[in-house]
Amino acid sequence: SSGEAPEFDYLFKLLMIGDSGVGKSSLLLSFTSDAFEELSPTIGSSMIDLLRVGLESRLIGLRIVVIGANVGSVDCSTNGVAIRISYVMYNPTYPQKLVYGVDFKVKHVTLGGKKLKLAIWDTAGQERFRTLTSSYYRGAQGIIMVYDVTRRDTFTNLSDIWAKEIDLYSTNQDCIKMLVGNKVDKESERVVSKKEGIGFAREYGCLFIECSAKTRVNVEQCFEELVLKILETPS
Ligand code: GDP
How much is the pTM? Predict the structure, then answer.
């Protein structure tokens, strides 16, 4: 990228949620890698330590700290080392340590005659600990709920856990949801039928698609259908 602020008509924040291992990062990579604009690195532990040194004083007493704008990133310099971060989560169980990062990628697309900047957030692993909170959901126009068609638990967890969490934390009433059954390339191992996916989507009032991050089948459609629906929805 040129480093200059790109022109766009709308900026949308999209979230990827779902159990660990369902393919969230792979889908995001598959969608963004061809026309990749920016990468905010998953925050590694060494960066976290650097950050801690520089920013500790601002973190004390806070459980979750968002540095920078909701969908922006911030460049900081600690001990002369320049680093870029998008978001930092403070683990209340280990108050002396910052342990998780949230990663997001940006992609520019033109859809429905509009130039769009998509900031797509991925959870960088902390979904395992079920510690995503309102900061992650805040301001999102779209939520991509991913399960693995070869693992039933990842499907039932969407209704048992993730849907409840969305209802609890997502403050945007107009937020559009897309249910995604991933890994359809593993057809012989499939345990969740397409019909069940359609059924849950109808019940929950969301869009639905099946795809494969591996073969890229329906990956673009997944993001594009969601964004087109967001564009159609008056806010
Ligand atoms: P995340 O934890 O939800 O972000 O899942 P990852 O993107 O890290 O994927 C977990 C594992 O599933 C990795 O080994 C991926 O290579 C694999 N995977 C992801 N998507 C697909 C897919 O569509 N098909 C197949 N066969 N494997 C996939």
Answer: 0.74
